[in-house]
Amino acid sequence: MLLSLSLIGIFLSVILLYFNARKYTSSIYLGGFFFFLSLYGLNQYVVMYSKSVFFVSIVFLNIAFLSYLIGPLLYWYVRSILTDNSRMKKRDFWHLLPAVIFLIASLPHMFTPYSHKVEIAAAIVHDLGFVKDYKGNVLYEVVPLAAIFISRPVLVLGYSFWSIGFFIRYLNRRRALTVFSQQYFMTKWLSVFLGFLSVLALNHLLLMVKMFAMESTGVFFTLNILQILSGTGLAGLLISPFFFPAILYGLPRLPESVPPSGPAKGLISAFRPEAKKIMPDFEPDYLSSIDKKAHSAMQELQPYLQPDCNLAYFSKLINLPAHHLACYFREVKKQSFNDFRNEWRIIHAKKLIKEGKANELTLEAIGLLSGFSSRTTFFTAFKKVEGTSPGAFAARVNG
To answer: Is residue 255 domain-resident?
Structure first.
């Protein structure tokens, strides 16, 4: 069972990384989490159950340091989902310290000849208790073996509780937030995800404690309640994404069973059928707030007059994530941000023409005053919006 679940986890991580790594950084964290968790399970299976000298010689102490990345990846994933910010900070690299320390301590074994690793693997296959006697990791000389083995589930459990606390704080203050993206879908998913992980980490920790308390690995070879609960946690954790398939393809989808309501009813009802399949789970109120913010900023601040006004510039101006704006313009407005911005520039240019500025300035100058970078872009955009050239419009207005 452990082998099957580990292979499922690796398959799941490959799907997540293949389809989403370029679009959503949070998927990299989640894919990495499943990959390293599955490797940890695979490592345990190979060392304890496989009885294969070849596979034991490959995995023993060579990939153990990767298990210390499970907790950090979990925390980064949950944080990126709840804060809608996947960027790494300098202080985040401190989370990698346990993995780096264990990696450095394992280098003596990693650089030993393969023939020596085969001898060690043969000894482990013959007697699993040999693991306690072999000092291939420098840490084994200064730290009790039990502390090192137990530190892995302790860290995962600690990060699980940390993430749960983060999640609870989010739920308690979400009514005060403007951004409610992912509220319904991600609340369910994170509750299931963190619940199964806590069950797995807690029971695996208890198994480790029991093993060292009994000074025997027999607890892993006899069916008991801790093994059942640990297996249930792992199975639920790895299978649950298939019951929430939207996370396999990035941000969650808008549930078709939930009818749109509120100020944005008209916006959401205008979605194409195929758009529902790719539209993130933005609440109607949030979509309405984007619409209001975008138009208010254009009207009051006139950022379109700046030649460098692009999506990134505008997102910082109104303090909204750029990918939220991109999705809003693509799926709700059915136009690009550039077209939206140019419409406001044309409105400004028409105002100048109506005020008689065309009698004082060239049409190119009016275009530049309206935010366009050149005569060509101004004339092209004007004809696209108005269906006629600036010159013809000016002649009609002033004639």
So the answer is: no
DSSP annotation of 305 reads: G
As for how many domains the chain has, the answer is 2
Say what the pLDDT of residue 275 is.
38
Its domain, for residue 286, covers: 262-398
- Does the pTM exceed 0.85? no
Q: In what helix (H) or strand (E) does residue 318 lie, and over which residues does it extend?
A: helix 311-318
SS3 112: coil
Secondary element (H or E) of residue 127: none
Digit-coded pLDDT (tens) for 292-316? 899 999 999 999 999 889 888 898 8
Q: Nearest 5°: CA angle at 366, between 360 and 368? A: 135
Contacts of residue 21, Cβ cutoff 8 Å, sequence gap at least 6: 27, 28, 31
279 and 242 within one domain: no
Other C-beta atoms within 10 Å of 78: how many? 26
Q: Please, which residues have CB within 8 angstroms of residue 373's CB and are 6 or more apart in sequence?
A: 307
Q: For the segment 115-152, what is each residue's pLDDT rounded down to a tens digit?
A: 999 999 999 999 888 887 888 888 988 888 889 989 99
CATH number at residue 365: 1.10.10.60
DSSP conformation class of 143: S
